[in-house]
Design a protein that fits this description.
alpha+beta, about 25% helix, six-stranded antiparallel beta sheet, about 30% strand, globular, four-stranded parallel beta sheet, single chain
Length: about 280
């Protein structure tokens, strides 16, 4: 059985307790995968910060931030193998296949997003906790941008948007459906995966407003992109546009479904199988 270490930011809250019974809980999908791995006999240690001596067979670099600080990446290299060590920058400016510049030729709608993961909320929360603890902000200068802005054309985007490195302008290309719009979500760990197409009445497709879903294959170009971006575990959001896959978002700390259906529970067991496959590769 393997010793697994999960590297988190010193101010992060990977897990806690909630409810009247104070049950262990987490906002992250990895929590449920680890619970399954523990049931199979593996041991798990959650590391806050980089002060502990590396003592594990395999680690997961699980910092809920867009760009992993270099000292955390250096620390992760001290383990025999660390998942997602290559995925230290998931900014949309780097990963998005729909990003466009002010001078590009595009006649359709565009959308303005934060280049930071989840609007930069994780960085803002860590900064807030640091201030409360009397410590320097780990991510100074993060500006809030907590909404999407859809414009009819590239020319309608304010000039100052293109001057901000924390924002990105993308082609607005949801998959049209007779009853709404579709987006695709690919979850993976090692060689195990599930890829699902979600249809929503909203053009910005989210999991909580899905009216139907179906399994779909993973395009080969997306697999190649996963290797290029250095992901061992995570979630890719993408659409099919003009016959090709377009990556919109890459997340190395995907969130956890609060109400675990049999669909989600079976999926987590599958991802745990993928994690064990990685363990076998390095043992």
């Amino acid at each position: 059985m393997a010793r697994i270490a999960v590297i988190t930011h010193e101010l992060d809250r990977f897990q806690g307790r909630r409810g009247l019974l104070m049950r262990r809980d987490s906002p992250y999908m990895l929590f449920d995968v680890l619970e399954e791995l523990k049931r199979r006999g593996h041991s798990v240690q959650i590391l806050k910060g980089i002060s502990a001596k590396p003592a594990a067979d395999i680690a997961v670099l699980h910092l809920d931030v867009t760009v992993t600080p270099p000292d955390y990446a250096d620390y992760a290299r001290r383990f025999p193998f660390c998942l997602n060590l290559g995925a230290t920058d998931i900014s949309k400016r780097r990963v998005s296949g729909a990003a466009i510049g002010r001078g590009d030729r595009w006649a359709g709608k565009v959308i303005v997003k934060s280049s930071l993961n989840h609007w930069g909320t994780p960085e803002q929360q860590l900064n807030q906790r640091a201030r409360r603890a009397g410590k320097p902000e780990p991510f100074p200068g993060v500006q809030p941008f907590d909404k999407y802005e859809v414009h009819a054309s590239l020319a309608d985007v304010p000039a100052e948007v293109f001057e901000r490195q924390d924002l990105v302008v993308e082609k607005f290309i949801p998959e049209p459906e007779p009853d709404g719009f579709a987006a695709r979500f690919w979850l993976f760990c090692g060689e195990r995966e599930r890829c699902t197409r979600h249809v929503s009445p909203q053009s910005l497709v989210k999991g909580d407003d899905t009216i139907r879903r179906e399994p779909v294959p993973v395009p080969d170009e997306l697999r190649a992109l996963r290797r290029k971006l250095g992901f061992d575990y995570g979630k890719f959001d993408f659409v099919m546009h003009e016959g090709r896959a377009v990556l919109l978002d890459a997340n190395k700390t995907p969130g956890r479904a609060r109400n675990l259906s049999s669909f989600i529970a079976a999926g987590n067991a599958n991802l745990a199988d993928g994690f064990e496959g990685l363990i076998r590769q390095v043992s």
